[in-house]
Amino acid sequence: MKNSPIVTILLATFNRAHLIEETLHSIIDQTYVNWECIIIDDHSTDSTKEVVNEYVKKDNRFSYYLKSVNYKQGLSGSRNYSLDIAKSRGAKFIQFFDDDDIMHPKKLELQIKPLIKDESLAFSICKYRHYYGDEVLKFDLVDEACNIVSDNLFKDFLLGKMTINSLGQIWRGDLILKYRFDEDLLYAEERDLYLKIFLCEKPKYKNIDYVLFYYRKHLISNTKERYDSKIIKMALYRLELNLFEFVEVNSLWDFFLLKQMLKKHVFFCFDASIYDELRKVIDKKEINLGYKKYLIKMVLSSYILFRKSMVKFINKV
Predict the structure, then answer these.
(1) Using 50, 70 and 90 to split pLDDT, how confident is the model at 169?
(2) How far apart are CA 206 and CA 116, in angstroms?
(3) How many CB atoms lie within 10 A of CB 4?
(4) What predicted TM-score, i.e. pTM, was given to this entire model?
(5) pLDDT value of position 222
(6) How many Cβ atoms from other residues are within 10 Å of residue 99's Cβ?
């Protein structure tokens, strides 16, 4: 195992002095010993720094960094800082992790094996389950129902047919290190990034049918519980705009994406500028729409006329 590749764990933390020790212990207890853990502290105001530095002194596989001012406050900035450090180290495999969750002792061992064996795999992914802080974890290898199998990863992820927790994956470094999180997103930043990767890269992956990490549930464990509904809605809309821009810039249009963009940006939430862009996309030769092209144009023209009529009606009321 000494000659096995290093798994670089990227751990973001903020004010979790009371919880992070359990997380660090679960990393130390890994049966796969060839790892390094880069800990990014988002300027904690509690004793997180002191707690982490005790582990750094005892085990040189841990390294502590106070987030640079070049990165914005929040998880995305911390993740990006750690990705940049990992890139400078030439990291071959990347595991994201959080400061309040727990790894199964065999997480790294079981997930790195298929990546070593098959170089065509972009990542391996495991199952997880929620747990509460007072629960005693037995670390059995449990095969629980969790839908992370797909023939079309981008489509199923976009439509919500499958969910992926970012802590479940071990990524091949040469793929994930090409990308960065949107630091302006306070919510759904991982979904934003993974949609782009799944669409552009069409990655091949290996599903590990065991629960290999435990996602702690407590009062502020979920992003939805930290922000009000307005902030979440704004973030989700920005996510939609990010995806549209990514598809447009990289010329990734197909009929499925065109339909999704029309539904979201024209029929569900009208955006005049995106509508104009989508009209141009319909005429592009890169999408072979056939007779559907004329049907779509006819429906759009009828919808715009109806919308204008409704606006006039409301203005007169």
Answers:
(1) very high
(2) 12
(3) 15
(4) 0.91
(5) 46
(6) 25
When the pLDDT of each residue in the chain is averaged and rounded to a whole number, the result is 91
Between 46-55, 56-65, 206-215, 279-288, the lowest mean confidence (pLDDT) is in 279-288
CA–CA dist 259, 287 (Å, integer):
12
DSSP for 199-255? HHH---EEEEEEEEEEEE-STTSSGGGTS-HHHHHHHHHHHHHHHHHHHHHTT---H
Q: Name 202's Cβ contacts closer than 8 Å, sequence gap at least 6.
A: 153, 154
3-state secondary structure of 172: strand
What's the rounded Cα separation, in Å, for the pair 100 and 218?
10
Structure tokens at 256: 């499925």
Instruction: List the structure tokens of 91.
Output: 């990291």
**What whole-number percentage of the chain has pLDDT above 90?**
73
Burial class (CB in 10 A: 0-12, 13-18, 19+), 94: buried
Helix axes 272-283, 255-262, angle to 10 degrees: 160
Please give the single-letter amino acid code of residue 274.
I
